[in-house]
Amino acid sequence: MRISNRLLLGLVAVVLLAACGGGKGVSNSGTGVAAMKDVPSVRLNFRYEGDVPAPQPEQQQQSEERNQAVQGDFDNGRPQDEVLDKTIAAPNNQNFLAVWHRAGDADGEFRLDMYDAGGHLQRKLTADSMSAKFPETIRWSPDSGTVAFVACIRTISPSNPLPTTAPTPPDASATGEANTAPPSGVPVTGPTPAPPTGILAFRTEQIYVANADGTGVKALTANEGLKYFYYVWSPDSTMLAALATTRREWQVQDLATSGKGEEMVPYGRPRIIEKNGRERRLDDAATQVRPVWSSDSAKVAVAYGNQIRVYDSLGTNPTQAAVPLRNELLISSQAYDEQQKTLLNAANANTADANAAANSNTNSNTPVSAPTPSQGLSVLPDEKTLVSYNPIVALQWPQDDVIYLETAYVKRMKNAADNVTSFARWHRVVLSAQPASPQK
């Protein structure tokens, strides 16, 4: 017997809630909580909504547009072998982190300096023996007070720099006294700060933090053998959610992808790291999907294949909850494939009466309707027959009670022109608090 679409989705919701919330209802009435922040992950209910409009793009809190004042200092006030790669502005635009390298440095190894808004060098952040890695992951905290970066021991020991432009020789007067005034047009700069000393450095990539003015550089993590390759600040600027993997696992992943000409997208295990250095690993499972914070900084969400897991970041007894979405994604993918097939058949039928441009316009303006599965709940579609059924590749958490998830087929190649992204679709999970248990 066929089951109607509404009944089918209702049954699916019941199954999901039973798995994640003990079968409790989704109403917020009677929960006894004032905000989602007060609801532990294990007490959350979840409702899946498939094929929804994409969320608004996340606003970039830091600018990587090259600061001209900093560029001017590199052009006129620093040795020729020091090359500026980019600047990263704090959200308040009061400080700029300069990412640069010196001729002779190994590929992928960088140095960091802190500049003020006027383009004046404040402090050097990396010691000569340290190398900043993964510059694309450098993150300012939302309050502009702290910057986080990854660094490790430099593979090439500090050596004598290459010859630089010699200073203009002083003009000798008839009396034999030198004219020490700077040549006209050359900016007068203060003494160059010395690189920091006494900072712990490791053989594998660790997370470091520094204050906005470049002071207080310290290693936030100290796990030799682990490589930290991604991290994101909590909205309240007190914690980082990070991904890390072992050096051996990194090497195995790199070998597996390089042999096929693919760009490695590393897997890592999620963890929360507080500004005092306390670290908590969230899960033993590894993922390629970057973790996201709830807007209240109370929780972190991570995706694994066709499942989302939510973890508490606050409290003395943090909990976690799993949101298995395989069945829901199968059903909505089946409906999506059937709809695309219907649209294609309709377009082909109208070919004789409409030109290609009109057909293209019709297809682009046809909204995706609600899923209409053609099979009963007891007969899930075979995932091998669904071209749009793909794993979760990205998460967004714009509201405390709504998590967006993107599914897609993605392949990243060393030659970027060969990259593939297809069947990208957005869905969402609506969160609610379980009702409070009745008083006895």
Oligomer: single chain
For the termini, the CA-CA separation is 42 Å
- Gyration radius, rounded: 28 Å
Assigned CATH superfamily of the domain at 68-158 and 194-323:
Dipeptidylpeptidase IV, N-terminal domain
Give, in order, the helices and strands: HEHEEEEEEEEEEEEEHEEEEEEHHEEE
Report the portion of residues in β strands. Answer: 25-35%
- The tally of strands reads 23
Per CATH, what is the topology of the domain at 68-158 and 194-323? Methanol Dehydrogenase, Chain A
* Helical amount: 10-25%
Structural class: alpha+beta
Overall morphology? globular
Mind telling me the CATH class of the domain at 68-158 and 194-323?
Mainly Beta
In words, what does this structure look like?
With 440 residues, this protein is an alpha+beta fold. The protein has a domain at 68-158 and 194-323: Dipeptidylpeptidase IV, N-terminal domain (Methanol Dehydrogenase, Chain A, 8 Propeller). It is built from 5 helices and 23 strands. The strands form 6 sheets. Strands 6, 7, 8, 11 and 12 form a 5-stranded antiparallel sheet that branches. A 4-stranded antiparallel sheet has the order 1-23-22-21, with helices on one face. Strand 11 and strand 12 form a beta hairpin. Mean pLDDT is 84; it is low at 1-30, 160-187 and 362-376.
Descriptive keywords:
single chain, 440 residues, alpha+beta, Methanol Dehydrogenase, Chain A, globular
Summarize the structure.
The protein is α+β, with helices and mostly antiparallel strands and 440 residues long. Helix content is 16%, strand content 30%.
